[in-house]
């Protein structure tokens, strides 16, 4: 198994002039404060600061005139070609404050208030990445499955699910083979551009959006598209087995970081949860950047960091596109974003290609084996069914016998009770007869005695 040492690749993009919200909030007036310097650097001029100008170095820097397609061609496409198609999982993640052009970078023009047929499948990193994979499919025999979720207020929603009732808060599980995953998450097979365009449109339509002071169409949730690939490769393998690359591509559009006082009500709660999850992400990046393997990495502090565990410290290469706005009134947020991205650049890890073996010597034989196994299973199930029916009949007969015996015992007991009652009645009658006889005898003796006394008295009188 091939492995590579991999650093986070970090790029910075200044909000492009083609972004719909560029000519709002005075962006065009402030462009002079941020410029692209030599050797892929960002020069930040702070005329009112005692610290002077700041310089930040990155792997690539793109100014406001750079189109998304150029970014894809120069940085994303080579990564996909060299890493993803060779079995290495890849994450592409956009980070920045609200209104800095993150969703525009990932998806192109905003999908709000547009019909599906009106959307051109071009312009965003997501669309161009998928186009690249689909175009490579005939050459590399690629199979792809897609899932799409959002994390909103620390709850996970499946954006491809049609069942809203069971889709409010998906669970997260983790095992050695699958890593971190949501078992209820729907996966769609991808065969062409039209299919994935439809799924992306469906997901974006369900995604939580809202108007804030900083962006009229602001993404209020973290969105993660996952493509699970299966790439057939001609590699040496055991007879009867075929080797496949099985990398994953994570496309992550983070919600914007912002100050809490900029929002009120529901937006305040959303902002609080967004900042909390981004803080957890920052803590993980800080610890990983230190390179101390003994330190605990708090992936479980938020749903976002749990789902991005493989992207941050696991077996996946990572590209971060940090989006910044040229508006000077947001210079503090811009500096925070640049520092955040600079720390991520220090993360180093070793990644391995994802390979699985599939037995394919004879598909027809496999099908016959499957049918034979299915028939054997059906036979065993039928035998078990007959056995259970036989057991049920035996139990029924035993129960009947038991009930019959119980009924006989009850009848015998009833008969015995009746006989005892009759016997007691006879005894009682005999007893009464004896008593009556004794009483009559006593009475008779009494009368005899009285008569005798009378005769004696009468005799005395005569004398």
Automatic annotation (TrEMBL):
Annotated Kinesin motor domain residues: 7-347
Keyword annotations of the record: ATP-binding, Coiled coil, Motor protein, Nucleotide-binding, Nucleotidyltransferase, Transferase
Coiled-coil segments on the chain, per record: 149-176
Ranges of biased composition (kind: Basic residues): 415-425
The EC number(s) this enzyme carries: 2.7.7.7
Positions of region (Disordered): 397-425
Gene3D superfamilies xref list: Kinesin motor domain
Molecular-function GO term, any one: microtubule binding
Chain sites annotated for binding ATP: 96-103
PROSITE patterns: KINESIN_MOTOR_2
GO biological process: microtubule-based movement
Family matches, as PANTHER family: CENTROMERE PROTEIN E, CENTROMERE-ASSOCIATED PROTEIN E
Family stated for the protein in its record: Belongs to the TRAFAC class myosin-kinesin ATPase superfamily. Kinesin family.
Protein's UniProt name: Kinesin family protein, putative
Organism: Ichthyophthirius multifiliis
